[in-house]
């Protein structure tokens, strides 16, 4: 406004001061332009660098989920320096502008380490324990306390299904199921994975995963799916019969070769030795005897997939692909807001509380 005011005065009252006024106008105009340029650059950097300012409200939601257990070691330090730091490092500026990304950690309700509020403050750190990536928009971390089986019959069961269903209830478009001792290696993996899922015919009906050079390289030890579509087909993320060990075998085979893709341009490193001692897990005992269930459960899952594909012509394809989860099934399997979840911390908490309130009002 001051620039315009001076300009008008210059036009209306010519005098000996005109050269001085003109100089002031030029200086103010140049200053204003510089400020505008800086402001726009800042907005650009926030939108594509870390602030996410230009990300649309309905951006696809990538939920990175991992179950965690403290055992004899406290995993927070490793997770901050490896898992969380690598998430910040490998998600590109463009992906931050296009996708909403959150980390969702699930733990048993009786885990003494994760029950403490002070341990719900994870942030990316370097090897010296110093905060890093502070210039970027924080990637939210959610902490979900899941009630264990009260009968005690399955003490080594890892609550993958509860956590993944909670992520879907929270609005996840894609679920990336990883381990708490994993580290992302390659950049741009969200783009590579979502493009691969879209390339299936029909789109999103399939599973992709990263290359992992540790452990069993014949299967995908980490996986990513279009969440609504996957759970529409199989009802749960993994078969309920598995406690822990064979979930990755199942998902590596249930879609068949044409709909299963391990990506060369997406790599993770699995630091499984961190929580193992003398080749024995310090945190849970693998239920090896469940290998006898694997073949039948893969066959049952394949039949569900076949039925889904045969019915797809009768579905609203656009609705299926954007949601893929009809309201009857959503109500049937909803877990967020129920007593199966003991507690939620992080931005996910508000959704949990609102769903609890809604469910209680319907009783």
Question: Can I get a quick summary?
Answer:
By secondary structure, the chain is α/β, with parallel strands linked by helices. It has 13 helices and eleven strands.
Structure overview:
This protein has 363 residues and is an alpha/beta fold. The protein folds into two domains: 2-48; 61-333, Spore Coat Polysaccharide Biosynthesis Protein SpsA, Chain A (Alpha-Beta Complex), CATH 3.90.550. It has 13 helices and eleven strands. The protein has helices spanning 2-12, 18-48, 76-90, 93-98, 112-115, 160-169, 189-198, 227-234, 247-253, 291-311, 317-322, 327-333, 348-362, and strands at residues 61-67, 100-108, 141-146, 174-177, 182-184, 207-212, 223-226, 260-270, 276-277, 280-281, 341-345. The strands form three sheets. Strands 7-4-1-2-3-11 form a six-stranded mixed β-sheet, with helices on both faces. Strands 5-8-6 form a three-stranded mixed β-sheet. It has a two-stranded antiparallel ribbon with strand order 9-10. A hairpin with a 2-residue loop joins β9 (276-277) and β10 (280-281). α1 (2-12) packs antiparallel against α2 and α9 packs parallel to α10. It is globular, with a radius of gyration of 25 Å.
User: How many separate structural domains?
Assistant: 2
State the separation between the terminal residues, measured CA to CA.
60 Å
Low-confidence stretches: 1-17, 27-52, 320-328
Portion of residues in beta strands equals 15-25%
- What is the top-level CATH class of the largest domain? Alpha Beta
The count of helical stretches stands at: 13
Mean pLDDT score, rounded? 83
The sequence of SSEs as H and E is HHEHHEHEHEEHEEHHEEEHHHEH
